[in-house]
Q: What sequence folds into this?
């Protein structure tokens, strides 16, 4: 909150600056040493907002200016690069009012009190940022990771809950709407779909049936079958899932689809939250560091144990693979939506409003004259 206040004061001090629009350059990529007529416009824009700390003259892209562009990119959650192209220019053309409005909206959000006390150990998933931060204030540490969230069509709900339980190698009981809208059309295009995805079909009495014997085309509404995906490798829930009470049937889980974490827009799920660092998150949730328990989790996920005692576990005749673990103490979870947030390295980041929640809040603030 204080960081956003300070940044709003800084932007207000710039005044009503209007940046000259920077022309788009198509597929051209400008690199250090190259000349272009838009270079002075980029330099002027970044001088006004503070990313460029020293005057740059001429129309040649310098390493100093590129460094300032990369600082701007980080603030807007873009990847740094050794060139400048149209994609970045579109962001540079955003007016100062865009950033001020973002700050005002999220200052208002920051005033809203959470339902429950966070305590010293808690988790905040920021849907707008596609980031999760797990805080342990006792040791002053933050575990930060990328997450994938619900698509615009299947929005991840905002909620408060408590994480009590983790399950290793879960089966996936496919929801009916996914069977109807995705699996049946996929199977009708490719009859190897169930085999390839290690899915089994059961009737209402729990008896396994052959998917080739079912006339799927006639089930456009209710489907009198359940579909269950085998656990372990290739399972859509990954190797570990974290459950918490909520009325939306969503949870945090691992995923085999690692490619999605490389995207800027990670709104790709049906509503659940996929974790980039599921194993690290499991260790964070433990009450105290426990080498042997951590190795049992690793082994269940087909990872090598690290401790000397852990290395003995797989060869022990008495060893049983860990299937689930109940936490000794619950960890509060807040799934929130903040289009400006503070990163683990203490920098303000601006996020795109993927669910389009900001305009209605800004309008309500304006109507009530809450904007300073």
A:
């Amino acid at each position: 909150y204080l960081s956003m206040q300070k940044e709003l004061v800084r932007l207000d001090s710039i005044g009503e600056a209007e940046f000259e629009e920077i022309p788009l350059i198509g597929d051209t990529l400008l690199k250090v040493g190259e000349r272009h007529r838009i270079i002075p416009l980029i330099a002027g824009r970044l001088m006004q907002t503070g990313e460029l700390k020293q005057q740059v003259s001429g129309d040649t892209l310098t390493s100093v200016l590129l460094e300032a562009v990369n600082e701007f990119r980080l603030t807007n959650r873009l990847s740094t690069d050794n060139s400048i192209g149209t994609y970045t220019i579109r962001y540079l053309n955003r007016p100062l009012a865009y950033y001020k409005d973002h700050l005002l909206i999220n200052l208002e959000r920051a005033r809203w009190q959470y339902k429950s006390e966070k305590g010293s150990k808690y988790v905040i998933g920021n849907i707008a940022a596609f980031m999760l931060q797990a805080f342990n204030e006792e040791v002053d540490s933050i575990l930060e990771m990328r997450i994938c969230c619900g698509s615009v069509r299947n929005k991840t709900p905002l909620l408060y809950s408590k994480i009590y339980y983790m399950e290793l190698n879960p089966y996936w009981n496919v929801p009916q709407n996914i069977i109807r809208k995705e699996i049946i059309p996929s199977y009708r295009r490719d009859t190897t779909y169930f085999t390839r995805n290690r899915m089994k079909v059961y009737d209402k009495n729990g008896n396994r049936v052959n998917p080739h014997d079912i006339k799927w085309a006639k089930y456009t509404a209710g489907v009198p079958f359940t579909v269950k995906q085998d656990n372990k490798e290739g399972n859509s829930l990954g190797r570990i899932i974290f459950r918490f009470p909520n009325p939306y049937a969503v949870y945090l889980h691992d995923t085999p689809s690692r490619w999605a974490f490389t995207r800027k827009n990670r709104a790709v799920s049906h509503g659940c939250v996929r974790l980039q660092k599921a194993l690290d998150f499991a260790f964070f949730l433990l009450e105290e560091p426990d080498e042997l328990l951590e190795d049992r989790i690793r082994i269940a996920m087909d990872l090598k144990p690290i401790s000397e005692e852990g290395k003995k576990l797989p060869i022990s005749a008495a060893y049983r693979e860990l299937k689930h673990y109940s936490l000794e103490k619950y960890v509060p979870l807040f799934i929130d939506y903040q289009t400006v947030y503070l990163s683990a390295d203490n920098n303000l980041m601006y996020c795109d409003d993927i669910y389009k929640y900001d305009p209605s809040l800004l309008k309500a603030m304006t109507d009530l004259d809450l904007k300073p």
Q: What stands out?
A: The longest helix spans residues 96-111. The CA atoms of residues 118 and 261 lie 27 Å apart.
